[in-house]
Design goal:
Keywords: Lyase. The protein has 149 residues and is α+β, with helices and mostly antiparallel strands. It has six helices and two strands, in the order H-H-H-H-H-H-E-E. The chain has a two-stranded antiparallel sheet.
Length: 149
């Protein structure tokens, strides 16, 4: 019996197939009828993918059942410390380090004592034209979870 493929290996195969097929993440998300950022994160191994979406993604990418099986598995969500050295990821971490305390204060002021869920959560990315250079717009949309005593 073959073991289930590691999610990291499945992600590498997804990325290879995507590049070789000349597909964007947006095209894949549209073809499997799923949100863009969720699709990208899920196919890179950060979410379990429902069977219908895993099968659809593998069909779009020409990947086999072993990849679909891996995509369906629950991930171990963690970050490779080397990824923190990537300039884009580092700048996102830096933005949260700078603005995190202010966002925390504003969440507490507006909602009370609690947190924004990263489980009951949506995230989106958009491009906004600007004469000084296009802007990256990232939206975090998380359910407020109040602390209960």
């Amino acid at each position: 019996m073959e073991p289930i493929m590691d999610k990291g290996e499945a992600a590498r195969l997804v990325e290879t197939a995507r590049v070789r097929a000349g597909l964007t993440w947006a095209e894949i998300a549209e073809r499997i009828d799923a949100p863009l950022v969720w699709t990208t994160a899920a196919l890179l191994g950060q979410h379990p993918v429902p069977a219908d979406k895993a099968d659809a993604a593998c069909a779009v990418l020409g990947l086999d059942e072993a990849v679909a099986e891996s995509l369906r598995q629950q991930p171990s969500r963690s970050i490779d410390p080397a990824l923190l050295q990537d300039p884009t990821i580092y700048r996102l971490s830096e933005a949260l380090a700078v603005y995190g305390p202010a966002l925390k204060a504003l969440i507490h002021e507006e909602f009370g004592d609690g947190i924004m869920s990263a489980i009951n959560f949506k995230v989106d990315i958009d491009r906004r034209p600007d004469p000084d250079g296009d802007r990256v717009v990232i939206t975090f949309d998380g359910k407020f979870l109040d602390y209960r005593w």
